[in-house]
Structure formats: C-alpha cells, structure tokens
Amino acid sequence: MSQNIVFDADLAKRHPINILLVDDNAINLKVASRMLLRMGYEVDQAENGLQAVEAQTRTGYDLIFMDIQMPEMDGVTATKTIIKNFSPEERPRIVAVTAHAMKGDRERYLEAGMDGYISKPVRVEKLIAAIQETPCKTPVAMAALAGIEDANTAAAESAAPAAAAAELPVDIAMFGEMLGMEPEDAEEMLPELVELFLDDSAEQLASIETAVNSGDLDLLRNAAHKMKGGSASVAAVPLSKVCGKLEKMAIEGSLDGAPEQVTEAKAEFTRLQTWFNNQ
Predict the structure, then answer these.
(1) Matching CATH number, 172-277, of 1.10.10.1100, 3.20.20.140, 1.20.120.160, 2.60.40.10
(2) What mean pLDDT do residues 198-218 have?
(3) Residue 22, SS3?
(4) pLDDT digit string (tens) for 151-168?
(5) What are the Cα distances from residue 262, in Å, to 170, 208, 221, 246, 266?
(6) Hey, where are the domains in the chain?
(7) Fewer CB within 10 A of the terminal residue: the chain, N end or C end?
C-alpha cells in the first residue's frame, strides 16, 4: 500500500532559509514551487544559470536548487561562477537537480562544487532533506530565525511509487505521492500541469522527430532530455521512458530503432492529449 507524505507546514517557520529554484522548464518550476509552498517557503525562480548568478548577486540565498542543462548558462558553469564570486561564508548551498542518470554525473557535479544531487522527477522527501541540511546564513534568514524555538523536524518517509496504470498515460497515484497529496487532490491538480506540459512540449516533440530524420544527435539529446524531465514531472511515465531511450541513443551516438521510438513517443503524446481533453 502506498503511503502519502505528510507536509510539515511549519517547516519554514522553524527553519527559515532563502531558496532559489533554477530550471528552464516551467512545469518543473511550478511543481517544485507548489511543494515548497506547502512547507511555508515562498521561493524565487530563475530560468537559466545566468539569471541564477544575477539573482544570487542581487539577493543572496541559503539554498539553490540548480538544474544542469539550460540555455544561456548551464548549471555547472553557474555553480562555478557563484563559487568564484562568493566566499565560502557567503556562498549558498547548491543542489543539482537533473533528469540525467548517467554514470559519473553525480561525481562530476560534486567536483564542480555542488553540495548535493537530486534526480527528477523531484520527490518531496528529497526537498525536505536538502532543506534540513542547509544552514541559515543570509541576513534575512538569520533575522527570521532569531527568537524561534528550536524544534525537531519530522523526517519524511520515502514512498514507493505505485505502478503506472496501463490504461492511462499518467500515473495519478505517483503524482500524488511526489507532491504528498491525497489521490483525489492530485487528480484535481494534475490536468492544469498536463495542459502546461502539452503546450510547452509540442515543439520539443517536433524537434525530436526532425533530429532523428536528419541524424542531429545534439538536437535529439537536448529535446529528448527536456521532454523526459517535463513528462516525468506530470507522471506521464510511458512518455518519459521513451524520451529517456531517445536521449540515451543520442548520447551513445546510435539511432538504430530511433524512428520506432519516435512513433511511440508521438502515440503517448496523443494519448496524453486525449486524456487531458476528457478531463
């Protein structure tokens, strides 16, 4: 039996830190923001590494959740820039957030100066753990912390995702567990995010097909990576898996079987559209 995460709505009161979310995917930003808001955190957002560096310079943060693959400036470069520009006492804790699962990636991020690693789709307990490991350092956070009585924060238990229902293109139970919501609440919220994903991803799907037809490995890797992460964030498990296969093909430099995977991706995208239109 699956187990729902119980949000600690007062966590931000007991552990007030300034948080910046950095991701070029609007769905990922919205999902993570909703999770953090339920813990009492109102977070800032940036869409690429360049904006993250500017935000850190302008505002200063205790914790930055940093996507890796972004336009303008990637997450690794942004991290190195922040480390260069800020002393150890001033610099934020930076946690990599990425759909990449290639061997050696975690070590590469840590070598770049990042303090931790979270894989997509992001789960509530991983956010809580990152928050609890982050000290309050910024003046705003320190001021908020003053006078607050120390309390032990309940540890969130990891919930095993339910198996995806074969007849649906989305796993509503998994989505609810990722956000710590009851199934009925997840079912009510999910269509809003699926609509955003569909609007944002049609161009990516077209890019995937173009890349396979032209043999453009870089375009395929980037488009498939972004679509894999976005679909995982709305628990569109079958679509996320096929996009992951296409991304792996691009990384390995072999497109054998790629046209069939594109056909499957298009079919799953259509199934997702049909599901949304029936809501």
Answers:
(1) 1.20.120.160
(2) 92
(3) strand
(4) 333 333 333 333 333 468
(5) 19, 7, 13, 8, 6
(6) 11-145, 172-277
(7) N
